[in-house]
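User: Can you model how zinc ion sits in this protein?
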Amino acid sequence: MKQKETLSTTPLKEQHIDLSNLLIEEMGDEHKASSVETPLRADAFDTTDEEKIAAIAPHFKAIMEILGMDLRDDSLKGTPLRVAKMYVKELFQGLNPANMPSMTLFENKFQYNEMLVEKNINFYTNCEHHFVPFFGKAHVAYISSGKVIGLSKLNRLVEYFSKRPQVQERLTMQIGKALQTILQTQDVAVMMDAKHLCVSSRGVKDDSSNTITSFFGGKFQEEKRKMEFLKYIDINE
Ligand SMILES: [Zn+2]
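Assistant: Here's the modeled complex, given as structure tokens:
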């Protein structure tokens, strides 16, 4: 009760979170890859984006030439540089922790202590085994420990971790663990429902299958909370 009075007389307090700690944690002191961390070399960001683009373009050009394509054709000659830019500036921008979106925490002024669910967040990412897209919906939930973040930040976080070569299991865990750190609570749930082009457009060419992955932390491991979350997102809808 006392806490409530204090909060109601205090203006909405903002707290900016320094995410540089998260990035160090994410990369690990030894920059060693584990199942949750994206495998990155220690020198991953010694070169600038521009240097990376300049270095990738001739390699992509070589791939196209090996495939027998005539790079003198007007339609093709810009492709190597276009792909290099797209890789570095768009599709894989989230490899660099410097591109992590800023997160601002607010006091949970309304004392809302139930779960907050943000469902149907669209995401597009690329499979790290084939470099073709997988995409779908992410559903994210948390129970506030006294802090809340703007709803659009949940979308931004999903987008950030999607902009890496990924596997769906790791993507799901990276979002869940980052949210736990940012929101200072274990009570976080993430579910991702995706279609993989490496399954539908090649290989077994199964067009109808979806892949579902989940992350349940803290109170979400309780059956009751888990069921409530699943009821809200109703992924069969
Ligand atoms: Zn794949």
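A couple of observations from the model: Residues 49-66 form the longest helix (18 residues). The first strand starts at residue 14 and ends at 16.
User: Helpful, thanks.
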